[in-house]
Design brief:
The complex is a heterodimer of chains A (499) and B (145). Chain A has 499 residues and is mainly alpha-helical. Chain A contains 23 helices and two strands. Chain A has a two-stranded antiparallel ribbon. Chain B has 145 residues and is mainly α. Chain B contains five helices and no strands. The longest helix of chain B is centred in the middle third of the chain and has 23 residues. The relative contact order of chain B is 0.12. The chains are: A mainly alpha (499), B mainly alpha (145). At the A-B interface, helix 8, helix 9, helix 18, helix 19 and helix 20 of A face helix 1, helix 2, helix 3, helix 4 and helix 5 of B.
């Protein structure tokens, strides 16, 4: 079986001493930022990206991926113990997890969260392995025409699952594409919209933008509100869940994994939406829904499984098609490009050890999390008490060093400052920056393929509808768009988010 | 500002301003034709779309239920941005150590009450940590002082 050969190759790559070390470093840093308030995995990956430059591509990606799913894990610890989600992915875990902690069952909740994450991670690894081969084979046949339609679908899909108003999100995508085009035009060699600034001839670099928009802007926003954390006074004892807990949680874990795996693959997927959907599903099918919100173990198990499965399967579109489904995946694309690798379906055939190594490392990383983190719970608990006032000046320094080192350029620091300001403006007027980032990353690819497609079709835009695959992709895009404008579905989406 | 959705209005104005900047920046670029696009074709087209969105938000912002522009937290905004600017200036002139200390102190002043002594001590610690990690450990060619 080709699948097993591939997974074996991946395991061999991921289990080398160096990669194990980077995987370990990734999940540890990830758990750390997941536990700490006010610093997101996105900012962390952006900050550390420049320093992966000297690593082999597989090690770099393994570590950055580890930060991502490690953070989900740390975040749920914070959610259960202090009722403050480290990341959006564990907002739902707060509901029942914190109640369990207040009832003295913190240990059980933490253990179930860990087991659910590991189970989901294992299944998601297999899902990725199964889906990637056919998807990449399919995508290898794409010409410029299909690529354009695929990017359009990817961008619109991101809007459907994003928060906030769809028209604003679409406007932000277009803005992102425009800003992404700044720099020398590859076809004609003419600098575009650079205002004579030589530093942006090769395009505006992505890392300072991401750190500014997400890290700096969110920090300023965080500082507006007082940060209070209600720590549960009870000591955490008995990290082994009871048999009854396990029996109640297991079906919920399976359902959560299924929900997460499916939602994660979709464009716009990731770790944010799956837990909400999984929680809603558990509540709907439960014999006694009133238990939810009062410490129901299913309310911890299902969302935790879903966010981990979603976090992992969201790598599928990025790795196989080169289309990021969320800003974090956009950063991963950035990491690949720094390494000189053009993301897309050819990565799997040209660099199989990178591709399968990253996938296998996710499973190993999840195993590390469950083995290492439960005994280390005391350390994470201590870190939960670190006040934000102490953290954020240090984060500013590391953000600045990270932004500078990506190109050893002072200009990037000013860029980060500028985008920090713009990002704060966006937060204030209630506009999400994520669609901007996706548009920015995909913009150059979109334009290049669009121009090539139109050249081949001698200016006839109907070519996008004449090719069957392209037409199908655009039809799905149109359906998504219709769904967005259709109030019924929109309302349902809002309800899902509020729950 | 009564009777208008200030947030939506602000976004509309932002988009319009951006579109105008894009038009100005691409005015000397060849547009070409649909079959053979010049470097200016796609940016121009995008600028038109952005202008359209901007105008639409401007109109809906005027018609929607009134919502005031949210209050800004000036202190964190100014202090954090100033601390980054300070980092950029100090890093290129006095080196990493000074930049770290200066940035921590200025950024730390974003919350009140400001404990200056504590911040300076924390800044020195961050500077030492950064010097060890980035210059010693990762071998980055930073000027220390």
């Amino acid at each position: 079986m080709e699948l097993f050969d591939n997974l074996a190759l991946g395991l061999a790559t991921a289990a080398s001493w160096q990669n194990l070390l980077f995987c370990f470093a990734g999940v540890m840093i990830g758990t750390l930022v997941g536990v700490l308030p006010g610093i997101s995995p996105l900012t962390t990956v952006a900050m550390l990206l420049p320093f992966t430059f000297g690593l082999p591509p597989a090690s770099a990606l393994i570590m950055l991926a580890g930060i991502f799913y490690g953070a989900q894990y740390g975040s749920s610890t914070a959610a259960i113990l202090v009722n403050v989600p480290g990341e959006t992915s564990s907002i739902v875990t707060c509901i029942d997890g914190y109640q369990m902690a207040r009832q003295g069952r913190a240990g059980s909740a933490l253990a179930i969260a860990a087991i659910a994450s590991f189970f989901a991670g294992t299944v998601a690894t297999i899902v990725i392995a199964l889906l990637s081969l056919p998807l990449a084979a399919f995508a290898l046949k794409f010409t410029a025409v299909e690529t354009v339609s695929l990017i359009v679908l990817g961008l619109l899909g991101a809007v459907v699952l994003a928060h906030g108003s769809p028209p604003k999100a679409i406007a932000m995508i277009v803005v992102g594409v425009l800003v992404g085009l700044v720099g020398v035009d590859v076809n004609s060699g003419v600098p575009r919209m650079t205002f004579g600034i030589a530093d942006i001839n090769d395009g505006i670099s992505f890392v300072p933008i991401a750190i500014g928009l997400f890290g700096i802007a969110e920090m300023i926003h965080n500082l507006e509100r007082p940060q209070d954390r209600n720590f549960v006074g009870t000591r955490i004892s008995n990290l082994l869940p009871s048999r009854a807990d396990l029996r109640a949680a297991f079906p919920a874990i399976v359902r959560g994994t299924a929900v997460g795996s499916i939602l994660g693959v979709l464009p716009g997927g990731g770790a944010a939406l799956p837990p909400f959907s999984a929680y809603a599903l558990e509540k709907k099918i439960a014999a006694d829904p009133s238990r939810f919100g009062k410490g129901a173990i299913e309310g911890v198990a299902a969302p935790e499984a879903a966010n981990n499965a979603g976090a992992q399967t969201s790598f599928v579109p990025m790795l196989t098609l080169g289309i990021p489904s969320n800003p974090l995946m956009a950063l991963m694309i950035g990491a690949l490009m720094i390494q000189g690798i053009q993301p897309g379906p050819q990565v799997m055939t040209k660099q199989p050890e990178l591709f399968w190594g990253v996938i296998a490392s996710m499973w190993i990383g999840n195993l590390m999390l469950i083995i290492i983190n439960l005994p280390l719970i005391g350390i994470w608990v201590a870190l939960l008490r670190v006040p934000y006032d102490f953290l954020f000046p240090a984060i500013v320094v590391f953000c600045a060093i990270g932004a500078y080192s990506i190109g050893n350029s002072l200009f990037d620091l000013w860029l980060m400052l500028g985008f920090g300001l713009i990002g704060y403006f966006f937060i204030k007027i209630g506009v999400e920056p994520a669609p901007f980032v996706l548009g920015f990353v995909l913009g150059p690819m979109l334009e290049e393929n669009f121009r090539r497609a139109m050249l081949i079709a001698s200016g006839d835009a109907l070519v996008f509808l004449e090719r069957p695959i392209s037409a199908a992709l655009l039809a799905i895009s149109a359906l998504l768009l219709a769904a967005l404008l259709f109030p019924e579905i929109r309302r349902k989406r809002e309800v899902l988010k509020e729950e | 500002m009564p009777r208008l959705d200030a947030k939506e209005l602000a976004f509309g104005l932002f988009l319009i301003a951006l579109a105008l900047v894009a038009f100005a920046a691409t005015r000397s670029l060849a547009v070409g034709s649909a079959a053979d696009m010049g470097p200016g074709f796609v940016p121009r087209a995008l600028a038109w779309i952005i202008l359209g969105f901007g105008a639409a938000f401007l109109v809906t912002g005027l018609l929607k239920t009134p919502e005031p522009f949210p209050a800004l937290a000036w202190r964190p905004l100014v202090m954090i941005l100033a601390s980054i600017a300070l980092f950029a200036v100090l890093f290129s002139t006095l080196g990493l150590i000074a930049a770290c200390v200066g940035t921590v102190v200025v950024a730390g002043a974003a919350t009140t009450p400001v404990r200056w002594l504590q911040l300076v001590a924390f800044g020195v610690a961050i500077a030492a940590f950064s010097a060890l990690l980035f210059v010693k450990g990762l071998g980055l060619p930073f000027k220390l002082w």
